[in-house]
Amino acid sequence: MSVGNFFNPTKRGHFRTLLGARWFSIFALLGALVLVSLRAGAAPRCGAPGKPACPLQEWMRSRLALAFAKRDFPALERHLLDLAADNPAPAKWQNWSKFAKDGARAAQAGRIRGVVAACARCHSVYRPEYNARYRERRATQP
User: Fold this and answer.
1) CA distance 68 to 77
2) What's this model's pTM, rounded to 2 decimal places?
3) C-beta of residue 103 within 8 angstroms of C-beta of residue 114
4) Please, which of 23, 64, 137, 139 could form a disulfide with 59 given CB 3.0 to 4.6 Å?
5) What are the tens digits of pLDDT across the range 10-19?
6) Which residues lie below 8 Å from residue 81, measured CB to CB, with a gap of 6+?
7) Residue 4 above 70 pLDDT?
8) Angle, to 10 degrees, between the axis of helix 112-134 and the axis of helix 73-85?
9) Which residues contact 116 (CB under 8 A, 6 or more apart)?
10) If DSSP states are collapsed to H, E and C, what string results for the chain?
11) CB-CB contact of 66 with 124 (8 Å)
């Protein structure tokens, strides 16, 4: 086998043929898992199955989720405004407060779908980084 055939996918000596497609896939998967585990760091002390809720998670459950379940729009509005003020990185996360205030305006108007949309936008944008950086941060609002 010549060296030229090693890098040519149409020739028999191609590296994926040498390793086999299965082995290549297994090594690629293992590499991805190692990268994810290195990025994840230590296991969280809260918010994971079998662990207590994290402070903001508990705050959202006891206030926002409860008001949402009862369709208590004045309470939803009040708690969403509290959440807007509790932005952990106001200079970097300008939309945190905007999303919370959008939800508060929707609650004030009695639009439950607007509240859900605002919450979904905030969670999709900020939840991963919040969990990575601020998971155990105490919620400042009562």
Assistant:
1) 10
2) 0.67
3) yes
4) 139
5) 555 554 554 4
6) 100, 101, 104
7) no
8) 30
9) none
10) CCHHHHCCCCCCCCHHHHHCHHHHHHHHHHHHHHHHHHHHCCCCCCCCCCCCCCHHHHHHHHHHHHHHHHCCHHHHHHHHHHHHHCCCCCCCCHHHHHHHHHHHHHHHCCCHHHHHHHHHHHHHHHHHHHHHHHCCCCCCCC
11) no
Closest to 118 (Cα-Cα) out of 74, 46, 68, 56: 68
Q: Could you tell me the CA-to-CA distances from 3 to 6, 11, 12, 16 in Å, in that order?
A: 5, 11, 12, 14
Give Cα 47 distance to the centre of its chain.
12
Question: Which pair of tokens denotes residue 65?
Answer: 């989720």
Length of the chain, in residues: 142
Cα(127)–Cα(142) distance, integer angstroms: 21
pLDDT, one tens digit per residue, over 114-141 is: 999 999 999 999 999 999 999 999 876 6
Distance from C-alpha of 45 to C-alpha of 55, rounded to nearest angstrom? 11
